Each structure stands twice: as C-alpha cells, then as structure tokens.
Amino acid sequence: YTLHGCVHALLIWIYESVPGLGEIYGHRIEEAEVPLLSWHGSRQRINFPNFCAQEKKKYQKIRVRHMIVKAMEDRYPKWGEDKLPDDLDNMIVDILNDQLNDKFWDVVPLTMCRKRKNQVSAPSVPERV
Hints:
By secondary structure, the protein is mainly alpha-helical. The protein contains 5 helices and 2 strands. Helices cover 35% and strands 3% of the residues.
C-alpha cells in the first residue's frame, strides 16, 4: 500500500501502539511530552513478516498496546473555569454515541476540474507594403 497524507500521524500511532516497531524503526525523543513531538526520523520500509518473526521469537507474541477507553470527564476539552456550552456537550455526546446527523450540514458537491488545452496560433507575419 502507498499512503498519501497523514503519514506522520500514522507512524506515530503505530510506534506508540506496537512498541516493537517503535523500538526498531522509530527514534524516540524522551523529553517530549506530546506524542506527536516524541518521534523523529525518516519513513523506513517496515518488513512486517521479519518483524513478526523476531517479535514472536523474543516475546512469544507481538506486543500491542491497546487503546484505553477514557472516563467521560477526560474526553471533554478543558477551558479553565468556563462552563461547557450545552451545544458542545450535546455534539460530543452524539459523536461518542455515533448519533451525529451528518445531513445537518450542507455539503458542497465536488466540482470536477477539466483541463483546457492551450491553443497555440500560428505566428503571424506582418505584411510589407
């Protein structure tokens, strides 16, 4: 597969979720607190069959850090002492319960761009009198 866009986010996610891949292919920055800023390096080709064989040989399984469901109060953005707006609260609850009505917003239809051929005219020769 070839991935275009969001490559860094996907790499960070896989380095965090599969520690063995992060250890082999990632370059962790220990002092960074934000996961997005805690990895650097180039995008390397990951040899999954080789990685899986090494991981199973060393640990008898492939180590995976599963996503943890957070408590409801940790899912909301924190804005100091401000009370959470009811509209935002309702929208977050709808998103978490997969009840967000996406037909509520008007979606702009996709416009197709057509290439126009550049027309080249023959050079004109001025008439001499």
